[in-house]
Amino acid sequence: MVILPELxxxxxxxxxxxxxxxxxxxxxxxxxxxxxxxxxxxxAALLAFQSKGSLFYGAYEVDSYSQLFKALIGFxxxxxxxFGQNLKGINPEIRPEYYLFLLLSVLGLMMLVSSVELIAIFxxxxxxSFALYLLVPMRDDRTGSRVxxxxxxxxxxxxxxxTGFMLYGMSxxxxxTGTTYLKEIIAFLAKGNVQPTVLVAVLLVLAGFFYKLAVxxxxxxxxxxxxxxxxxxxxxxATLPKFGAVALLIRFLTVPTGQAQFLIELMAVLAxxxxxxxxxxxLVQKDIKRMLGFSGIAHAGFVLLGLLALDRDGYGxxxxxxxxxxxxxxxxxxxxxNVSQEGENLRIDDFNGLYKRQPLLAFVLAVGLFxxxxxxxxxxxxxxxxxxxxxxxxxxxVVVCLAAINTAIALYYYLSVVKAAxxxxxGEQAGRVAVNxxxxxxxxxxxxxxxxxxxxxxRFIDFASTVVQTxx
Amino acid sequence: MDLLLIKEGFPLLSFLIxxxxxxxxxxxFFHNETFARLWTLLITSLTAICSLPLLFGxxxxxxxxxxxxxxxxxxxxxxxxxxxxxxxSILLVLLTTxxxxxxxxxxxxxxxxxxxxxxxxxxxxxxxxxxxxxxLDFVLFYIFWEFMLIPMYxxxxxxxxxxxxxxxxxxxxxxxxxxxxxxxxxxALYLESGSFFIPEMMWQPYSLTFQVLVFxxxxxxxxxxxxxxxxxxxxxxxxxxAPTAGSVILASVLLKMGTYGMLRFCLPITPDATMLxxxxxxxxxxxxxxxxxxxxLAQQDMKKLIAYSSVGHMGFVTLGIFxxxxxxxxxxxxxxxxxxVTTGALFLCVGMIYERxxxxxxxxxxxxxxxxxxFVTFLAFFxxxxxxFPGTNSFIGEFLVLAGAxxxxxxxxxxxxxxxxxxxxxxxxxLQKVVWGGTANPDQSYLTDLGLREIxxxxxxxxxVFWIGLGPQPFLNLMHTSVSALLDQLxxxxxxxxxxxxxxx
Lengths: 472, 505
Prior knowledge:
- The complex is a heterodimer of chains A (472) and B (505).
- Chain A is mostly helical and 472 residues long.
- Helix content of chain A is 74%, strand content 1%.
- Chain A has one domain.
- Chain A has a two-stranded antiparallel ribbon.
- In chain A, α9 crosses α13 and α16 runs antiparallel to α18.
- The model of chain A has no long low-confidence stretch (mean pLDDT 89).
- Chain B has helices spanning 12-29, 33-56, 90-106, 115-134, 138-147, 149-159, 164-193, 198-201, 208-225, 234-241, 244-269, 271-297, 302-322, 326-357, 373-386, 393-408, 410-435, 452-470, 473-504, and strands at 4-6, 65-74, 79-85.
- In chain B, α2 runs parallel beside α4 (115-134) and α4 (115-134) runs parallel beside α11.
- Chain B is globular and about 65 Å long.
């Protein structure tokens, strides 16, 4: 039962497949099945937390590293399914299919974090990506301009291109080392058989995950896809795949390239470009999802900064940061998908006076945004602090100063949403926002998680750093 | 850790930090307005009463950190929960805890909308303010320092005046932008000294370049908070738009954090840079004193007038700190307390007028003396105190600061004198208008004089005005040991450095 969470997800996908066969759309059933399997996945990930094993001729490794990520993915999935249960932007007829592909995508992610062989990595990544490509255009065509189709096309075209890079890099790695097992690749290269081509190969592979994480210059898809996808889908794209990307980035960064210095400098430049590009573009956004998209680019830069140290402390901190980032983003998307009345996109003005219309959601939004802005005691601050510490320890003084300045820039646009929610009077047609108590509970859980993880980070980071150590 | 006198038994400082937080959590569940007011008053009063043992148990003969508590927090990075109290922080902690119940009382009628969230913000504020003054771990300090922005932002943004959105966002952006480099400086110090424990960062042989960079990062953060002259523009906006309690907290406590930071961090952590850069900072302080005075003279809005007078008064404080002698520093510390008492009281007075006339315009408040004799009596004493009339608290503070400045450099002290004169000019102008006005006074006959609650709020402030003004010795005694230890070390350090410089030649 070492792959219990994956099995649960597969069972859930199958169950939804049968639900989707019905001629009349079974909206409620689909919803219940999805939420049930979401919770079951989280429970299964917790149950399988301690398990260890190696499957499929060593291509699939179940270790504490992968289980940590699976638990995080399971937790986020459960929350996402609970708060996104209304699926306002999706046609009721295709909701079972929507859930089906969602679960398949998560299944791909879970397989991804366990894969330690190039082909297995590729297959799980594609399973995850293609299911996700389908989710984007499933949105209702309410505006008549088919933005969701545009978003879907952009997502798949850029995605396939990034995959192409990655596959090319993998083929180079295989050609250089004669094996597709990461462990053997690392062992082979560590013996000193390093050529300049290794660097090219690793960079090409990294590019595939930079795309998932939305690092400059592979970020182009982000704002349009976030805007075109329904609120729930955007919430999914913004959160769970980041876990997979970080998990695999760390795995591939342990590959010795012989050019560590160059890699570090390149990543520092990419990190800074991401931050400046993301933050400066976010300043002028009117659409909340576009804004969060650009902020996501900036945060991806921060994650890279954590990886910059190329040591286990840095990796542990990067995991902590991405976990915190996902929680805060989930909090924001919880509010977005519930404030949106019929699944339409929200402008920042639409949050005007939210604290009068629905105080709890306003509070969750404020916590999420203050967290993203890096204000203590939320997890965003601790993550930022740890990442700056690990980068400064590696003597990147200029990079750290520029990153710190970026957090000041970023504050403005986060604050402008809080300002809308708390200081502006609600407009005429903006009525009260009714929210299901279960969703309110999910919001409270997120607030607690964001605060507690931020105030008491010691155990999580210790655990993450220990787990990362087992990779070598 | 021999710098700490660990307190056995009841963790008093942690109790003072977390009691308001615990109280605020209760308010999340009970929204009744009367309950919220009474409950907050109870919690803040309890905190105030429980802070008094600090005063009685304080050992004035040692410069060590007393009532200290230390617990491991994030061992991986050597971050600990360490709190402690010394002569520099004790008065500020007491000022904070004692002023909070009056802030609650001042908001009793002023706040009618969303009372429970308002009180929630006040209590959370108190937690972070006490935390800032007692934290001895730099990360802990920074967390309290930044966290405070959220409740203060909300206090201005939700319950503020007409331009609240602008004022609150300006306040938040200025303060946060100032402190991002502080975070980098903290990390850099940690990597140099291997610890986040503040006393262990002090008096370390950092290179001069490093010290100057760290000092500049510190200075930017603290100068914005003080606020010193070129960084002051957020203050009038925030003061004017904040509700009375917000203004009082801002003036009495928040501004002190900047000068506290300079005293606690700049001097002992970067002594060489302090001595190198003291001169320009002194002249900036002078600029602030004069500029604040002139600007205050031209204001028509009472809150703005007092806000600009704060810029001037805080200029005296930074002046006193950076003359680096014991008169100056003790005067500066006393002046921090004085400013907290006097300006806090003045903001309360303006708030009381505002509750009646719904305007802060000086012209509309002209001549209220006829109908509000009690009110103008209080206002007169606080105004006198504000410009340092002999017998009131500010006189002692400003006198010590000026004495210190004379000791340091006569021209400097002479340059500060016009500031004191200007203070008299703008405060007397305010007083004259409010008490008598002119021939064209608006009709004030509908005004009622202060009620019992309002008199009860103002009387303790008046008590402190005269207590510090007539018998400041107990206050000076509290801080003396710590201040002289700090300055001794600083001068010792200076000589030591000079010896080293000679040796190197």
